[in-house]
Amino acid sequence: MSRKRKAGNDNGPTMYKHEPRAKARAHNLTVSTASNGQQRVSVSTSTVILQAPPPSPICDPPSIDFDDSRNDFWSENGAIPFNPDNMETMGIKLPPAKRYQNSDAPLVSWLGFRNIQLDERMRYEGRGNKMFDSTCPDCLIKNLGRNEGTYRCEDCYGREMLCAGCCANRHRTLPFHRVKVWKEGYFRPVALRDLGVIVQLGENHAPGTLCLFGLDLNKDFIVLHTNGIHSVRARSCSCTPPGIPPLDLYQQLLRAGLYPATPFDPKTCGTFELMRLFHMLSLQGRVSAYHFYNSLRYNTDNTGTVKLPDRYRAFTLLARKWRHEAMVKRGGRAYDPRPDRVEATAPGELAVLCRACPVPGMNLPDDWQDTPPERAFIYWLSLAKDACFRFKNRLRSSDAKDPTLGPGWAYFVDHGPYLEHCKSYATEEEVIGHLVWAESAAPGSNAGAPTASETCRRARGE
Ligand SMILES: [Zn+2]
Ligand SMILES: [Zn+2]
Ligand SMILES: [Zn+2]
Predict the structure, then answer these.
(1) Is the terminal CB of the chain with fewer CB neighbours within 10 Å at N or C?
(2) Do 191 and 209 reside in the same domain of the chain?
(3) Do 175 and 217 belong to one domain?
(4) How far, in Å, from the CA of 155 to the mean position of ligand 2?
């Protein structure tokens, strides 16, 4: 097998035959010590030709040499088990791994491509080959003549230059794309609403059609999407059978995947996609609402020359409501048939159970209570307390203006009963500087008997 490979590759592998690409300068630091003990640092510069290393020699197939001293062991214990981690100790010699410059030092390989990549990025922002012929391709297909295409979408694939009408047609189902128009030698942003794109609400209306009885929403209607802040022309739907009132606007918006900041005459919405993205980023990347909104703002206009509507406060409201509703949704509250299904949530119902905590009947052996005393520690209740929680997140102006959304539903107890409890101990002298470790029996078991154990540690205090 190895002969075949060698015969077919007399000149070495062809995949890695890189031509010399370019030169780069390498700067070297040399530290020398003079006779008086002083250290001197000198800098020298040399030129390095960027090229691939010579092809690696073709390796022979692995030869397997067994250690004679182990033969007795294997003959006594049967066949040799396959264990790739153990090949070295079994005496199997592996060929050295091949080395490639592009894998070992990818930045060095890339240095020679910088100029071309810079040019390509500049070209991508410009018109490319459309600067020689910017005829609208959609008009050509429809036999509408050679109309000049000056509009380009930053989010559609293809970067085609279209006329205003064709650009609007293409974005009936993509109303939150960012479109630019080539004017006076550069691209400038233009709102799709100015091209005539209308977001028609109502499940019975196909994109691009209008409801005869619908009304235009507020002229300052803003939609926050993952790619920026959009001024949108939207219309409600009022075509319902006689005797049935039209659906509330906020419900129409929700059914269109637009999350309104308020149920009453909303002027700001976030797309569901945006809300999911922020929820994920805040959990995984610790991105705050402030930084996320600023990113949206700069993604819409990074020059500061366009006056954008400020919907930051509306966005923080959106984020808080979305998170709360997600918690209620994941708690399965939507399946409760009662009309007040959310308010009927029981204390602690939305908390996610700790999988590591032993719970009788769930992840403990049936005879856990019969454990001998010397092993009873396995089921002791161990509580670790950490006082570094970010309680400032619970600071608010007043409960009347900023009400608790889920009192006692998850990890915090209901504040009202908690304050009543605290009243009983208000005059008690405080013990300072001690951590309290408690060992107690599980409910229903005798004191001193083995108990269910729970160790909950929140080392990060969040
Ligand atoms: Zn056209
Ligand atoms: Zn588009
Ligand atoms: Zn309608």
Answers:
(1) N
(2) no
(3) no
(4) 5
Residue 406: count of CB within 10 angstroms of its CB: 19
Query: Which ligand is nearest the CA of 134, by number?
Result: 1
CA of 288 to the centre of ligand 2 (A): 29
Whether 267 is in a domain gets the answer yes
Domain holding 141, by residue range, is: 126-195
Last residue of a domain, one of 146, 163, 195: 195
Same domain flag for 295 and 222? yes
**Tokens describing residue 218:** 């507020």
C-alpha of residue 215 to centroid of ligand 1, in Å: 29
Ligand lying nearest the CA atom of residue 143: 1
Residues 179 and 246 in one domain: no
Which ligand does the CA of 241 lie closest to? Answer: 3
Asked if residue 387 belongs to a domain, the reply is no
Check whether residue 223 and residue 164 sit in a common domain: no
Which tens digit of pLDDT belongs to each residue from 209-246?
Answer: 999 999 999 999 999 999 999 999 999 999 988 889 99
Residue 298 included in any domain:
yes
| Rounded distance from Cα 254 to ligand 3 centre (Å) | 16
Co-location of 325 and 215 in the same domain: yes
CA of 122 from ligand 2 middle (Å) equals 20
In a domain, 404, yes or no: no
Tens-place pLDDT, residues 113-166: 999 999 999 999 999 999 998 899 999 999 999 999 999 999 999 999 999 999
pLDDT in tens, 306-332: 899 999 999 999 999 999 999 999 999
Same domain for 190 and 312?
no
Last residue of a domain, one of 330, 346, 366: 330
Phi, psi of 296 (to 5 degrees): -60, -45
Please report which ligand is nearest the Cα atom of 210.
3
Same-domain check for residues 315 and 262: yes
**Which-ligand-closest: CA of 162?**
1
